[in-house]
Each structure stands twice: as structure tokens, then as C-alpha cells.
Amino acid sequence: EKGIRLALASARPSPGLFRERDVLQMQSYGGILMSYNGGRIVDAATGEVLFETAMDMEQTRQVLRFLESLPVTPILDDGKQFYVTDKNGYKVDYECMNNRMECTEVENLADFLTFAPIKILMSVVPAIIGEVCDTIAAFLPESLTVVKTAAFYLEVIPRTINKGQGVLDVCRTLGILPEEVIAFGDAPNDIPMLQTAGMGVAMGNAEESVKSSANYVTL
Q1: How does pLDDT run across 53-89, given as a tens digit for each residue?
Q2: Helices and strands (H and E) in the chain: how many
């Protein structure tokens, strides 16, 4: 009502933001949905895709083949539903429920792939996530990167995608300066956004690397 534009910035697919979008009435107040860490930016009122960056399909297949040898559970989505090789895999049910999206089981993700995804999500047991992250980072081509988005989630995304770039894309669309933005975050994938915004605020339960990247730490 004061004219402040609200954007939800999340690693989730767009449907994973619809619950919060509706509660906050973002369709009526010029809201922006920044999903996939900024890989897809949508006008909440019209559903228009303002920006989108997808992965190369052949590179995606190569990464999926590599992940078959690691203790991870890959989860793909096409913006409408999830695809996995095991519906009972680690955190699969949690991800589907959290985003209110259906899940389809396929025999092999690399063989199944028929679309260019924006990301490859992986659930990983927290005790080994750091080691697994390093292994994946050493394998990836220069155009891709791996980020930790939760204690049990890693994501492979195009290197050009991050929430900081997403903030810049939104600012350019709305005709405002990054200095006029305040951002809130708690996970490592929030760091570029906190550093890009004029004021970055870390949550009290954020990881230490996030707190040290913010201007303020709140409750």
C-alpha cells in the first residue's frame, strides 16, 4: 500500500512461491517472483516471464551421468512437476510437498531429459554435503556452478545465475537503483543478493558466511 515492490527470491521453482504470493496478495501490489535463484523472474500479476536462463541440454545430461556415481538424489523439474528416479529418495517427498508439485518417477534422468532445465537440484546428507559439493565443482564445466541452498540441498545452475544478478534484472525492469533495495536472507545462495542490495539483512539463524556478508543481522 506504500508503493514498495516486494519480490520473493528463492531457489524453488515458481510454483513453490505461489502459496506466499497468494497470502501476500502480490498480484494486486506489483509483486515479483524470482525463482531458481534468479534463473526465472516472473511478474506476479500477469505471469509474464521477464527473464529466464536455462542450462544446455547436452551439458545437463553429462552432469546427470556424473551424479549417478555420487551419494546424491537428483531432482529435476520443468516448472510444472518434478522428475526423479526414486520417489522414496532422500528429501524427495519434502521437496514435492514444499512446492506443492507432483512428482513423476522415471528410469533414468539423463535418458529421460526432453527439456532444458534451469537447474539440477540434489538432496545430500548434511554430513557429507561439503565433500560432495567439492567433487561436483571439480567436474563442472566453466559455464556451470554448484551452490548450497540448504543444509541438505545442492544445486547445479548456469554460472551467470545468482540472486544478486536477479536483483539487478528486477531493478532494471522496475527502473529503480540497487541502492534502493533491501534484501533478507539466511543461506549461502543469498550472499550475492545481500551484497548487491543497498541494505542486506541476515537472519539470526543464518550461516556465519551469510552474516558476515550482510549490513545487519536481525532476529
Answers
A1: 999 999 999 999 999 999 999 999 999 999 999 999 9
A2: 8, 13
Q: Are 191 and 209 in contact (CB under 8 A)?
A: yes
Task: Indicate the pairing of strand 32-35 with strand 7-9.
Answer: parallel
3-state secondary structure of 113: coil
- Amino acid at the residue 171: C
Cα dihedral sign for 181, 47, 102, 119? Answer: negative
Q: Are 200 and 194 in contact (CB under 8 A)?
A: yes
Partners of residue 217 on adjacent β-strands: 202
- DSSP state for residue 46 in the 8-state scheme: T
Based on its alpha-carbon atoms, the radius of gyration of the chain, rounded to whole angstroms, reads: 17
- What pLDDT sits at residue 190? 95
Burial class of 112 by CB neighbour count within 10 A (0 to 12, 13 to 18, 19+): middle
Q: String of b and e for 54-67 (b: at least 16 CB within 10 Å)?
A: bbeeebbbbbbeeb
- Please list the ranges in the chain whose pLDDT falls under 50: none
CA 183 to CA 164: how far, in whole Å?
10
**pLDDT over 90 for what percent of the chain?**
95
For residue 193, which of 143, 140, 131, 149 has the smallest C-alpha distance? 149
